[in-house]
Write a structure and sequence with these properties.
Blueprint lengths: L1 H13 L6 H16 L16 H58 L5 H14 L4 H28 L19 E3 L2 E3 L8 E6 L6 E2 L15 E2 L8 E7 L6 E2 L5 E2 L10 E2 L3 E4 L2 E4 L4 E5 L2 E5 L1 E4 L9 E3 L2 E4 L8 E4 L3 E3 L3 E2 L2 E4 L3 E8 L2 E4 L1 E2 L1 H29 L7 H11 L3 H17 L5 H9 L11 H21 L1 E2 L3 E7 L2 E4 L3 E9 L2 E4 L3 E3 L5 E3 L2 E4 L3 E6 L8 E4 L5 E6 L4 E4 L2 E4 L4 E8 L5 E7 L1
Parallel strand pairs: 9-13, 14-16, 15-17, 16-18, 17-20, 18-21, 19-21, 20-22, 21-25, 22-26, 25-27, 26-28, 27-29, 27-30, 28-31, 29-32, 30-32, 31-33, 32-34, 33-35
Antiparallel strand pairs: 1-2, 3-6, 4-5, 6-11, 7-8, 10-11, 12-13, 23-24, 34-37, 35-36, 37-38
Helix pairs in contact: 1-2, 2-3, 2-5, 3-5, 6-7, 6-8, 6-10, 8-9, 9-10
Organism: Clostridium butyricum
Protein name: Flagellar Assembly Protein A N-terminal region domain-containing protein
Keywords: Coiled coil
Length: 612
């Protein structure tokens, strides 16, 4: 009976002008909400016998599911209508502004500056007669969006209540928060995400081990310094330690200091691993690896030599070459690479650590990776930062002008719609990518974008400080991912000549040294043998450089480059060696021993040395 009553009302209202459409929608919404409460569906469950109870229960459930889905579909149509009206309101507002600017320009050109308010009133009446009433359209749009979202939120709550009682809330990725959260007028106290881990306790030593102590005076065989770590199936690699959320504090004035959300890095099991009871367990024999929170056990591809007979090597996991890499060959390993003899005129690339026991002649050696997903996210953040900086500059100019009486949110909205149209799309892109990378929603930048930038919530921008705070959050996010984007890997090599070596981690020269070779490392460069010689080429590190002997008696030019806070040490340093700290450089003029170079607080390069 109720159904026919509501549709009768809808039919009557539908015959009236379009201005009554909002009233029609309100009646429709009341009908949907009552439908969701189950008043329309009547059950004959009490009339059936026990044998048919299960059948009727399933039938009733199907009917209820149908009602919920129909209501959901109708609510989504209401919501879509609201979005269309909001789009129309934006276009109307832009058309009004264009006409207003054109009118002012024509009046100014004619020298007519009188009766501005009266002219504005006449223009507004004219716009309304032409159907350009942006405020009214925006109000109707907001009401539609609100009604549609209320229905969808209630539907979500109904669906949650209808789930089996024995399903764990953690399995639903829901957990109880300290305070209720409000979403479009509906109150929920059970919103949040699981899998929010603060740290990982490594139970197995993943790195390779050395067989000597740095302070030891015994003779060292640098060709056999390292042993390769390996694990067996079912061995525990790490234990996941769940994070603890902080609490709000107080300053000395008794004011509340809100806790900051932790940016945790979820632990994931890669190939050859599984997670059980907060423990990461190996599922096969192999070599353990940890990259950006992903623990895995890699298979090892082993081969005697790389030459024309074997062809080039391209393997996703670890590669071990028991012999040499021949002339013109190429080796590419997705993870670590071990070469027990020499590399001659070849190309060597690895995502993980490279360990070459022999000599490298006229070759290129590269190691390390860039996290592609994080790099793409970082690129978007940098574009977004530039747009927000331009927006802040524009808002300041308009707000500081004597004629402006508009609110910050109104100025920002106008500028976004006219000059910075990419900001809404970039905001949505940042939210989706950040959630994907973090596996969580506890992020201050996401919260700010949702509450003060997206859609109608831009009206929550109250002051210039809000926009400046948004810029600070973007810069913090950029700094966080700049430090975490590059996967660092080290290179160990015996001797190098006429070669190029690049590492995202450290470079360790374990043998006689290098000759006319360029070494580039994002961390430190160390010559482990005190008798090792660095002669010719460029040695560039973003950390420190520790050498044996640098340069030669004949004055072969060798250049050492480090940042301003870097330190260069050498057992012996010959004249004509160039030391660069940042953009400043200084040439060593006399042969020295026990050499140390650094830049002092005044920006001068200091040499501490004894004459050789």
């Amino acid at each position: 009976m109720r159904e026919s009553f509501f549709f009768k009302l809808l039919t009557e209202k539908a015959t009236k002008p379009l201005c009554d459409f909002l009233e029609i929608t309100k009646i429709f919404i009341v009908y949907i909400i009552l439908s969701m409460r189950g008043d329309i569906i009547e059950s004959d469950k009490n009339k059936v016998n026990d044998e048919n109870t299960e059948y009727y229960n399933e039938t009733i459930k199907d009917m209820q599911d149908m009602e919920i889905l129909e209501a959901q579909s109708q609510a989504q149509m209401i919501l879509a209508l609201g979005y269309l009206l909001e789009y129309k309101a934006s276009n109307q507002a832009m058309e009004i502004i264009r006409q207003r600017m054109a009118k002012k320009n024509s009046d100014k050109a004619a020298g007519n500056y009188e009766n501005e308010e009266e002219k504005l009133e006449q223009e507004e009446k004219k716009w309304i007669n032409e159907g350009l009433n942006a405020d009214k359209t925006a109000l109707i749009a907001a009401e539609f969006e609100l009604y549609g979202q209320i229905i969808l939120t209630n539907l979500d709550y109904i669906k949650l209540q209808r789930l089996p009682k024995d399903i764990s809330r953690r399995d639903l990725m829901l957990t109880t928060t300290a305070n209720d959260e409000i979403f479009y007028g509906a109150v929920f106290g059970l919103i949040g995400f699981m899998l929010n881990y603060k740290g990982v306790k490594i139970l197995y030593d993943i790195g390779d081990k050395t067989h000597f102590k740095s302070e030891s005076m015994e003779k060292i065989d640098y060709k056999n310094v390292y042993s390769i770590s390996s694990v067996e199936c079912n061995e525990v690699l790490a234990e996941i330690i769940p994070e603890r959320l902080g609490q709000n504090g107080k300053n000395i004035k008794g004011e509340i200091i809100k806790k900051k959300g932790a940016k945790s890095k979820p632990v994931k099991a890669g190939d050859g691993c599984k997670i059980e009871n907060n423990k990461v367990i190996a599922t096969r024999d192999g070599r353990p690896s940890s990259k950006n929170g992903i623990l895995s056990v890699n298979n090892i591809y082993s081969i005697k030599n790389v030459d024309m007979k074997s062809g080039n090597i391209n393997f996703l996991g670890d590669v071990q070459i028991d012999g040499s890499v021949g002339l013109g060959m190429a080796v590419k390993a997705g993870n670590s690479l071990i070469i027990k003899n020499d590399v001659d005129n070849a190309s060597i690339v690895a995502g993980g650590e490279i360990n070459i026991s022999g000599n490298v002649i006229n070759s290129k050696i590269y190691t390390g990776q860039v996290d592609i997903e994080k790099k793409e996210y970082l690129d978007i953040l940098n574009v977004y930062k530039r747009e927000v900086e331009k927006l802040i500059e524009g808002v300041k100019k308009i707000n500081d002008s004597s004629n402006s009486k508009k609110r910050i949110c109104d100025i920002a909205r106008i500028l976004i719609e006219s000059r910075h149209k990419d900001i809404p799309k970039l905001s949505l892109n940042i939210i989706s990518r950040c959630i994907k990378l973090h596996d969580e929603v506890d992020n201050q930048l996401i919260d700010f974008l949702r509450c003060k930038v997206m859609g109608l919530n831009i009206s929550n921008l109250k002051t210039m400080r809000d926009l400046e705070y948004l810029l600070e959050l973007i810069e913090e996010e950029i700094d966080y991912y700049n430090d975490d984007m590059i996967i660092q890997s080290d290179i160990y090599v015996g001797y190098l000549q006429d070669s190029l070596v690049k590492s995202t981690g450290n470079i360790f020269v374990t043998g006689k040294g290098e000759y006319i070779t360029n070494l580039i490392a994002l961390k430190n460069i160390e010559f482990l043998n005190k008798d090792a010689v660095a002669r010719g080429g460029v040695i560039y590190a973003k950390g420190n450089v520790n050498l044996g002997t640098v340069g030669s008696i004949a004055g072969v030019s060798t250049r050492i480059e480090v940042p301003k806070d870097g330190i260069v040490t050498a057992e012996v340093a010959y004249s004509n060696t160039i030391f660069m700290f940042g953009k400043r450089s200084k040439i060593l003029e006399e042969d020295s021993r026990n050499f140390k170079a650094y830049m002092d607080k005044d920006g001068d390069i200091i040499f501490e040395k004894f004459k050789l």
